[in-house]
Amino acid sequence: MNTTGKTCQQNLIGEMGKRWVFLFLLLEFAYFSISASGYFSFDTVQMILFYGTEIFLLASAELFVIITGGIDLSVGYVLGFATVISSKLMVVFASLGISPIGCILISIVITLVIGLIPGFVNGVLVAKLRIPPFIATFSMLGITQGISELLMQGIPAKNLPILAGSIGNGYLLYIVPGQALSFFHRPDVPRGVRVYEIIPNVVVFAFLFIAVFAFILKRMRFGQHLYAIGGNIDAAARAGINVRKNLVAVYMLSSFFASLAGIIYVMKYITGKADAGAGFLLDAIAAVVIGGASMFGGSGTVWRTILGCFVIAVLETGLRMMGTPTFDKYILVGVILIFTVLIECFFSNFKK
Amino acid sequence: MKKTIVILLAGLFTLGIGTLPIASGESKASADGKITLLFMPGVADPFYTTMEKGVRAKAAELGVDVIVAEYPKSWGPEAQVPILEATAARMKFDAILIAPTSNDALIAPLKKLYNKGMEIITVDTFLGDGDYSKKSTYSFPLTYIGSDNELGGKLMAEKLAAMVGEKGKVFCEATNPDASSVADRVKGFKAGIAEFPEMELVGVEWCQDVQQVAQEQTLAALQKNKDIVGIFGTNVYSAQGSYQAVVNAGLTGAIKICSWDATQELIGALKKGQVDLVLAQKPAEIGALGVEWAVKFLKDKSVNVPKKIIPGFEFFTKENVNDPAMEQYIYK
Amino acid sequence: MRTSELSSRPGFTQTTIGRTVGRNWALFFLIFMVIVFAFTGSGFFEIANFQNIIHLSSTSILLAAAETFVIITGGIDLSVGFVMGLSSALAARIMVILSTTALPVPWIIILGSLAGLVISLIPGFISGTLVARFKVPPFIATMGMWGICNGITLRLCHGFFPIAGLPAALPELGNGYLIYIHPGKSITFFQKPEYLADNQIRELIRLIPFSFILITVVILILWFILHRHRFGQHTYAIGDNVDAAIRAGIDVNRHLVKIYMLSSFLAGLAGVYNVFQTGIGNYTTFSAMYELFAVAAVVIGGASLAGGKGRILGSFVGVLVLAVLKNGLAISGVEPFVRYIAVGVLLIVAVTIDQLFPDLF
Fold first, then answer.
1. What is the ipTM of this complex?
2. Contact present, C73 and C238 (Cβ < 8 Å)
3. Rounded (10°) angle between helices C290-300 and A133-152
4. 3-class DSSP assignment, residue B65
5. C181: which strand partners?
6. Are the Cβ atoms of C287 and B221 closer than 8 angstroms?
7. Regarding the domain delimited by C11-356, which CATH topology (the fold level of the hierarchy) does it fall under?
8. Which residues of A touch C351 (CB under 8 A)?
9. pLDDT tens digits for range B245-290
10. SS3 of residue A288 by DSSP
11. By residue range, what is the domain housing residue A257?
């Protein structure tokens, strides 16, 4: 029996298991680079980042809650709620004659504050009143949807400050080869001239927040407490962790991230509507699970969750650029998602 | 265990190879200078599937290539724009036929594609206020081809009023207030009903494109107001749900039902007497017109393209439903 | 669900819901709401309305029943909504194809329905195998199935067209009632009296929809399986503690596959029944979120997402709570979107009261 060889092999497979999601992402990217024309480019990566921002934020929001063993179904409609509030506020402030930058900033601050409310209610219901997270956040889903629809009255906000759109769709750096280089402001060029746009503003904005909270989760005591609560809530309480306070904070954090995503939505699409985030919910949870978190709590990291988001986004974009017919795409996404996780599970089971 | 890994990796490999031909269904880029159009539907529903058929038929007739983007899962820029960008990144299309899912949100991404040298035609819905003839930030599309939803709603109200003798309670089953086209239909219908003093609109419900919900809501409305005489279903799902609710309630014949969108299903219901009036937009014609004008303009840039083309509606009733001339307006 | 984690980590929800279950707050809440709506909404407290509610909830009830079994084992089945669409579309497509042959109508209907039911076992088998043998988290396994079923369904529908052209007998069966009474004139069974003119339709009283019979039979069978049969005991055992279940000699993998197949089959039944109810083959729209509402109903009915808890009648009550809330608020004249808020608030209030005053009931 060659025992060393076996451990070596086991180690290798163990490593593969740990890095599988990343590995799979590379495989995906390589595959699409070969088979989809125009896929292998800086623009594609930027596009994936740009359109992924909402999902990145929602998945991070969901991750915090899932680590504690809960679930937050309301993030999608809290996003919608935030889009409606911030777009309406911007219009109101603009009509009051406040400068565009002022009304954008004020609206963002107010929206983020209001956006904490659904999370606070969820947190109190779950932590203090011990209502199952599924019911609490399911009810909140309906409530936020109803309130946003009532605020909207079927009329999307019009005439938002033009500045909002140009920030949301803008880039840090523009280069016109051989002619111009400018920061934040798109140079005026005739139609057909190629402008290289580098790093969308909203991506920087989103990743700033994600990085801060990834740090908190990993290095700060609050983060450690969340894992402890998710691991074993009674043990956490015995160890002197204020479980209730932490849980309320987690749901508020989740709501905060969702509102942040809502604000980014408004800046990108210069409109707001109640169901803006409805389609993101399942993808966000799926990203968390692909990233290796357990739905029963206690595990998961921000970094791996973002990888999970990328796995989905790269796949979707790739299939679109290959021109896969709609129905085949639905099937392929399903098959490939199962396959990714299947292999991941295979590796982690093998290790034991 | 080694064997299992080999099997799994082999599986992955075959999967990759196997999906290649399916996945790259129609990615033949036109290298030979042939005109290539992109059709970007608004949402996954029969209306745009029918429009796609019209687009494809016309394109085949004129000998141009057309690529159809993925159907967005829901109505909204957050679903449509990523698909548009990803699909448009494949190659430089000569023109894009798109149903914008938001009047404002689509201006920036479409402008970007326009700046890259692609012509834009908006079908069914429009950018800004839909008036491209005056200069504005959204006046760059070639033309808008679509139907006037508000007018359609108003016409429905008038026809329904005529059917029920211009008096009584009516009910409206709609889908989603966030979808501008549907919201306009409801607006038109409200305005239309308001013109008849003896008629009353007792409620507007929103079913979020779920037939089951439309059924539940209509039945509840029928229970609340037992003297409802007419129902307007504003799109495929709401129309199906509302007429089926009437069937569930056993009130077929006692309540007049007007439905928007002429799917085969709704035409079948009309033949059975479960629906009384079906409005057909002309998705196939809209699509075909889009292709026609795009090609005309691309071949000769001096062609004067009308900035707004409204093909209008057709109405199916029990009398004309078997008329072969009407057959072409059924969505399929 | 990684089975080992289930056993080592009881999770937060288990402790909270553990206290909720056993006292049937949902049932009390349901009765209370029925009484309230009886006063606030004219036309609510009528036999016709209750029949409507049950009739239209029948597919939701089947989906919730499907979800109950999976949730008891600590899993979740997100594919139910689209399996329902798949079997509905397949049954309808087969019926349309058979209609072109000389086959008699009853055979067309039977063969079509059977095809729909049989196909629905496949997604369940696949996701069950993935979950049981390959330890794929149920969330991903069934979400993958979600996309696969949907893609196939839409192929069957040739795009986004509901499948029409089915035998006319279908909706008559699906929407039929056992007894029709035309007060003072006639009583007929199974079929409404022939002589009715359009203006007399509103006078007709109908009792006991066929869907009610179907639901009763299915619920009884499932109740028996879950609470009076070894299958049910094993299901609870797996949900409580997988390791203990294995030690007790239960073939957990096999049982899990069966559970997912049962879930999928019930979703298929809902799909086939949907063809009867509507007379067309419906694909499932994305905004339907059937799976979310089914899970919500099951959780309202007292189940725990951590597994080991849940009752078939509880889930039944859970569906009715949601349906009655929506229907009652609508009939009471609450505006559409205020209703969304009201449903959420009422649910929260009900659970809160239950938590604050555990000895109330």
1. 0.89
2. yes
3. 130
4. strand
5. C187, C205
6. no
7. ABC transporter involved in vitamin B12 uptake, BtuC (1.10.3470)
8. 125, 129, 131-132, 135-136
9. 998 888 888 899 999 989 888 998 999 888 999 999 889 999 999 9
10. helix
11. 37-165+222-347
